[in-house]
Amino acid sequence: MNFLHERDFGDIILSLSAVQAAGGGDYYIQNNPNAVRMLKPLIELQPYINKCGEKNLLKIDKSFVDFRKQGLPWGVQLAELHARWINQPVDFSKPWLSVPKDNKFQGKIIVNKTQRYANHIFPWKELVKFIGGRMLFVGHDHEYELFCNRFGKVERLLIKDYLELAIAINSSDCFIGNQSSANCVAEGLKHRTIQEVCLWQPDCIYKRDNATFCYDGTINTSVAGISIKLQSGLLDTTVNKAQTPAGDWRLTVNGKTIKSYAIDVIVIEAQSRGVSGTRLEIEDMIVKETLPSIGGNNVSERMAFDIQRVRDLIG
Q1: Res 104 pLDDT > 90
Q2: Residue 114 CA to chain centroid, in angstroms?
């Protein structure tokens, strides 16, 4: 059977749960040669996959390309949405990724944090204080620099592809991160995880005994033999410009809306379109348009509402 996808790395990894349940076959990726390069070694290692590559002229039996057309219901797992799209029942309690282990990662904690799907009350700074000496950060240069500047210096792990990433995660004591493609790898392995839950799009919650879902800043667990007890404090309503809000940052200039996951990108584009003001003044314009008061409620009230919704979802 031939399967097809073209979306983000995380979507591709999550779709493999449905591919495995369907009996496997050949997996093709279109319009994304970088995804082929980075994911092919991991995908082809799976026993239910014959080969992985760029789309060819063969008949496609199951395509995930348009899976988002069914919508993104709040609280529904992304992997479940892939399974629904091809009408394939899946037992998400079972792993769909398998890789060997490397002893050099024993006792290590793999961490990853992207700008998207963030929760700014997740206690990263406190975790770095507790277990930063065991952390290995995986991610892009700017993500690593931003993480160290905000939360404290940790060691970095460079990878050439997602097979190397999966081996590192599988060999580590724990993975800690937000809802990124690295988190999807940890989920596919069913590896010990602490997840930074996105309050506005909690679509990566798969309940299991070795997963901790932190949505309100509270963590009460043990990692690498270290007991960690962190309680949520007052809600931080400060706007964090380094993290992407729901629906991306945006600014309307001359009747046209500029959107991006990075506020810096919009500032540069706005300046090129003749928007006057200092960098900070333009950033304030972006924040005001992107994060308006919702129904008279302030940020703290809205966050409290979202926290309760996620608490009910997790149970």
Answers
A1: yes
A2: 7
Strand partners, 196: 178, 214
Burial label for 274, CB within 10 Å (0-12, 13-18, 19+), is exposed
The burial of 265, by beta-carbon neighbours within 10 Å (0-12 exposed, 13-18 middle, 19 or more buried), is given as middle
In the DSSP assignment, the letter for residue 274 is T
Token pair for residue 10?
A: 């995380």
Instruction: Give the residue from 110, 75, 123, 119 showing the smallest Cα distance to 220.
Output: 123
Q: Which amino acid is at 97?
A: L
As a whole number, mean pLDDT of residues 85-99 equals: 98
The per-residue pLDDT for range 187-203, each reduced to its tens digit, is 999 999 999 999 989 99
The pTM for the full model equals 0.83
Higher local confidence (pLDDT), 162 or 288: 162
Is residue 94 a contact partner of residue 105, using CB atoms and an 8 Å limit?
no
- Residue 299: predicted pLDDT: 53
Reported as a pLDDT band with limits 50, 70 and 90, residue 33 is very high
Looking at the DSSP bridge assignments, the partners of residue 155 are 136
Report yes or no: 159 and 138 within 8 Å, Cβ to Cβ.
yes
Mean pLDDT across 121-146: 95
User: Which pLDDT belongs to residue 116?
Assistant: 87
Tokens 């800690």: give the residue: 176
Hey, where are the domains in the chain?
Answer: 2-85, 103-230, 249-290
The side-by-side arrangement of strands in the sheet containing 62-63 is: 49-54, 25-29, 2-5, 62-63
What's the CATH fold of domain 103-230? Rossmann fold (3.40.50)
Which residue intervals of the chain are DSSP H helices?
9-21, 33-45, 78-85, 124-131, 141-151, 162-171, 181-189, 263-272, 279-290, 299-314
